[in-house]
Amino acid sequence: MTGDTRRPFDTVLVANRGEIALRIVRTCREMGIRTVVVHSSVDRDSAAVRAADVATQIGPGPAKRSYLYPPAIIEAALRTGAQAVHPGYGFLSEDPDFAEICAANGLVFVGARPEVMARLGDKALARSMMADAGLPVLPGTPEPVGTVADVVEAGRRIGFPLIIKAVAGGGGRGMAVVRRMEDLAAAYRATGAAARAVFGDGRVYLERLMERAKHVEVQVLADEHGSVVALGDRDCSVQRRHQKLIEETPAPGVSPGVSARLAAAAVAGAKAAGFTGAGTFEFLVAGEEFAFIEVNSRIQVEHPVTEAVTGIDIVREQLWIAAGRPLSFSQEDVRPRGVAVECRINAEDPERNFAPSAGTLGEFVPPGGPFLRVDTHAYAGYAVPPDYDSLLAKVIAWGPDREQAIARMERALAEFRIEGRGIRTTKALLRSVLADPAFQAGTHTTSLLTEGVSANGTPARSAGSPPGASRG
User: Fold this and answer.
1) For residue 166, what are the contacts with CB-CB under 8 A and spacing of at least 6?
2) pTM for the full model?
3) Environment class of residue 86 by beta-carbon count within 10 Å: exposed (0-12), middle (13-18) or buried (19+)?
């Protein structure tokens, strides 16, 4: 895993914003690659814009007229001499049409091939593909359901509780949990309508809900020459509205045998799909059993924890893979060390169902110290816009064991000073989660915030319940 002194590209355009845009720019700078950052009018003074070699405005604040508007991005790339486009995560990162547009204009899209992305982006099709590849899946519908009658029949066959999922869903959106048959038809209509509004695709499928399970994912890297390597697993069970708040690697409470099987399943799935680039295979884990959920054909928000324990720069690897280079290391070369935990500091109000909290930061002093990393685009005076995702910063702490990693994270969150008019954040909630007995023991599941720590940081379960009693 030695560094390569050559450059995969001379100029890379970063088609994103916030901390991920800044993170990509930093690796490009280390590699001697010129960077172009596109931005909306709202982000003209952003940290990523300041760090880039070239910055160009592509539209107004609304994402549909800027970060989700391919013509403006392509024009900027061609005008500035970019050879490749790195989409980061979110926005156009898993849009096969955008990847094809890039190729048609002689630009390298840093990600999976369009046809592979399209197959894996259809969650019902991906589920079927992975089942054919031998990965375990939960009982569900092999194809999208088209009528209320189909939904009712499927509900009887699958059983309750179940979850309705948008075929084109992502980021925790386009899902509905249904516990009773009498609620199924209404939930089906509502989820389909929401999916059409958000994703432009109203198709949904059904899957049995595995409650009190761990949400575990496996990071993979795959090149164009047939090599696929797993970089370990990550636990991301601490969630609100199906969106992650805390991630860590290795996944606590997952036996070495299950961890090895998860890695093997992810590698097999990637090979079966013809996947290339950086991707994540997601699973639900309960005891010694696990089931495939979905594939994310892009870099993940939580990739820093994997980088912390492996020493591998995933963005650097993405760029080399996109340039056609074989992976420079094998599975045997990947030797994770220690434990890393990531906490997401979001501009949200946990006591108002995590409603976004826009405003201006009067004080913003990130923590420092040994074995700590803070990925952020925010600063004192930064105006938190209402137009985009609420993520302000990611705090990543490493330790030789889980106890020390958690202790460092608690110290870091205690140090983190964030104040601003109208600004509320998830910091206090995160500290409460770190102190929760189930989290401390590593026995927590996706039910933690509903059955363990409440939004205001107080225990949701009765004080007399033993730690983790309601989690299974």
Assistant:
1) 123, 173, 174, 175, 191, 192, 194, 195, 198, 199, 201, 202, 203, 204
2) 0.90
3) buried
Going by pLDDT thresholds of 50, 70 and 90, the confidence category of residue 169 is confident
Contact 266, 278 (CB under 8 A): no
Q: Which of 444, 447, 449, 445 is nearest to 430 (CA)?
A: 449
3-state secondary structure at position 241: coil
- C-beta separation of 220 from 280 below 8 A: yes
320-367: pLDDT as tens digits:
999 999 999 999 999 999 999 999 999 999 988 899 998 999 999 999
Q: Which residues contact 390 (CB under 8 A, 6 or more apart)?
A: 346, 347, 348, 356, 357, 384
Quick check: 462 pLDDT over 50? no
CB neighbour list of residue 252: distance below 8 Å, 6 or more residues apart: 235, 402, 442
- Kindly tell me the sign of the dihedral angle through the C-alpha atoms of 155, 158, 163, 169: negative
| pLDDT of the residue at 241 | 77
pLDDT class of 457 with cuts at 50, 70, 90: low
Label residue 180 exposed, middle or buried (CB < 10 Å: 0-12, 13-18, 19+). Answer: exposed
Secondary structure of residue 312 in the 3-state scheme: coil
Element (H, E) at 151: helix 148-158
Cα dihedral 460, 461, 462, 463 in deg (nearest 10): -80
Helices (H) and strands (E) in the chain, counts: 14, 21
Q: What is the pLDDT of residues 289-315, one digit of tens each?
A: 999 999 999 999 999 999 999 999 999
As annotated, the active-site residues are: 298
